Task: inverse folding
């Protein structure tokens, strides 16, 4: 299982947070439940549990003749007299078990591969929400944004606040779309955020790059990905392999990014517990 330190819910409730953090916490909680569900999915699919019928066939006397005249092996152990029917039954059990394992492995592999996509979506959703919230609390955040509304947007707006909220979302989406984690961390640091770890940019850029491959090229590495992320050790046109033990590190890194970002916006918006 993935080893993630349990979140202190009392601590979360005792310190101020933006509304965006509540959604992030909810979404990551559901993600961890999903990962735990995947990890436990193999508990009922083990050779001991599913090949027990074969053991029964091999250990039990097959007929009265075997009970009365068991054939002895060189070691003195009883050798079961397997009939063609028993052999067919064993083959069927092995075939059923193999088919079941292959189905579980296939589903497990797909689930693991798509977890980076879920992680990225959760983080980008948080970033969008926290930027919109902060801009509504501190108008100076957008003073250099040059965001504007069209005549149509102004005439169709139900209120001034509705129009402003639309501009905030447009600005926040532009912030996210202009670059990935490297741009966000650089820009947020310039704005005043402090505490991002030195390895965070590289780790998040790799995660976002893997997400891009999964969504846009069926997980097949591209020349651009190989150039940007040589440490991943994949060649061009090779399928990226998302490993189970990578997930815990990725989740820790995105939590760190969100925690530092959240701390900055809590202070900027002057939130109090």
Result:
């Amino acid at each position: 299982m993935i080893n993630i330190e349990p979140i202190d819910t009392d601590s979360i409730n005792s310190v101020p947070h933006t509304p965006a953090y509540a959604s992030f916490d909810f979404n990551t909680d559901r993600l961890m439940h999903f990962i735990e569900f995947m990890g436990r999915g193999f508990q009922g699919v083990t050779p001991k549990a599913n090949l027990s019928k074969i053991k029964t066939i091999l250990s039990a006397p097959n007929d009265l003749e075997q009970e009365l005249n068991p054939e002895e092996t060189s070691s003195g152990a009883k050798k079961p007299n397997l009939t063609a029917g028993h052999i067919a039954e064993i083959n069927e059990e092995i075939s059923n078990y193999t088919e079941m394992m292959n189905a579980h492995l296939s589903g497990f592999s797909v689930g693991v591969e798509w977890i980076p996509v879920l992680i990225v979506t959760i983080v980008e959703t948080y970033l969008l929400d926290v930027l919109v919230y902060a801009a509504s609390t501190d108008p100076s955040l957008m003073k250099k944004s040059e965001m504007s509304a069209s005549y149509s947007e102004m005439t169709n707006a139900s209120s001034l606040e509705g129009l402003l909220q639309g501009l905030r979302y447009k600005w926040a989406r532009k912030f996210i779309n202009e670059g990935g984690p490297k741009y966000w961390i650089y820009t947020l640091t310039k704005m005043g955020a402090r505490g991002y770890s030195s390895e965070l940019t590289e780790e998040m850029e790799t995660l976002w790059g893997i997400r891009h491959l999964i969504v846009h090229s069926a997980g097949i590495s591209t020349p651009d990905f190989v150039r940007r992320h040589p440490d991943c050790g994949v060649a061009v046109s090779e399928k990226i392999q998302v490993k189970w033990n990578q997930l815990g590190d990725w989740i820790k890194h995105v939590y760190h990014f969100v925690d530092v970002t959240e701390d900055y916006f809590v202070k900027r918006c002057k939130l109090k517990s």
User: Anything to note?
Assistant: Residues 66 and 170 are 81 Å apart (CA to CA). The chain has one domain: 14-268.
